Amino acid sequence: MKILELEEIDSTNDYCKRIDCGEDIIVTAHKQTAGKGTKGRSFVSEDGGLYVSVMRHFAETESVETFKIMISACVAVCHTLESFGLKPVIRWANDVLVDGKKICGTLIENTFFGSKITRSIVGIGLNVNNELPEELSEIATSIRRVTKTSISVREVRNLLIKNLQNDYDISDYKKYINWFGQKVLLKRSDGEYSATALDVDNEGRLVCEADGKIQYISSAEVSLKI
Ligand code: BTN
């Protein structure tokens, strides 16, 4: 796949959209000036972090495959972190934590035509050596903070790019989940619920039990510390 390295850009995801001419590409940047997070939030993207977007095009791929795209990105990040001695955990759906703190976030922007996915842009922001804002210090971490050494962002980048080109499946994804059977807090548009997390099904839904009922959750924010 074509790989492009930028010094600074507003957002690697937005850049992919602007240059899209049907070619698959991986774009990385050392810094983003308007990094985007999920739910319309901004994503602080200082120098020292790794900001990557993978843009892929599909012809005959059903939308249900979107979960597989997400899985592959999360597992690629986890494998990369393990190579540097870290012990990553996936927080459903697509955050990666180390020591209970978020080290990587993923913003996936898919385009559909009918029941098919036509384009997927997987944006990954990984904290490597970047300083974390003071207000995030309780909930975020970086490779440098965990390993207490500055490691080469280039080395992390190259390994992540290699891993992103592999295909992974749900069993690889579940290897990084250590919280099945535990209580989680689900934050949804209509309120917050406590539930016991049981599984992630083959469609990517979080399977939970609350008040004796099994629920299949497609969208929520999950807090693992309750
Ligand atoms: C989140 O945790 O809210 C998701 C953060 C996703 C950040 C990445 S960095 C590369 C790509 N470009 C963006 O503007 N966002 C994603």
Structure, described:
By secondary structure, this protein is an alpha+beta fold. It contains five helices and twelve strands. Helix content is 21%, strand content 39%. The strands form two sheets. It has a seven-stranded mixed sheet, with helices on both faces. A hairpin with a 2-residue loop joins strand 10 (206-210) and strand 11. Helix 2 packs antiparallel against helix 4. The structure holds biotin. Biotin is lined by residues 11-13, 32, 35-38, 41, 43, 45, 51-53, 105-107, 123-125.
**Which ligands occur here?**
biotin
Order of helices and strands: EHEEHEEEEHHHEEEEE
User: Could you tell me the strand content as a percent range?
Assistant: 35-45%
| Average pLDDT metric | 95
Pairing-aware structural class of the strands and helices?
A: alpha+beta
Kindly state the percentage of residues in helix.
10-25%
The helix tally amounts to: 5
The largest sheet has its strands arranged as 1-2-3-7-6-5-4
Topology:
Elements (H helix, E strand, L loop, with lengths): L1 E8 L2 H8 L5 E8 L17 E13 L3 H18 L5 E3 L3 E4 L2 E13 L2 E11 L16 H5 L5 H12 L5 H5 L8 E6 L2 E10 L5 E5 L2 E5 L3 E3 L3
Parallel strand pairs: 1-2
Antiparallel strand pairs: 2-3, 3-7, 4-5, 5-6, 6-7, 8-9, 8-12, 9-10, 10-11
The structure holds biotin (BTN).
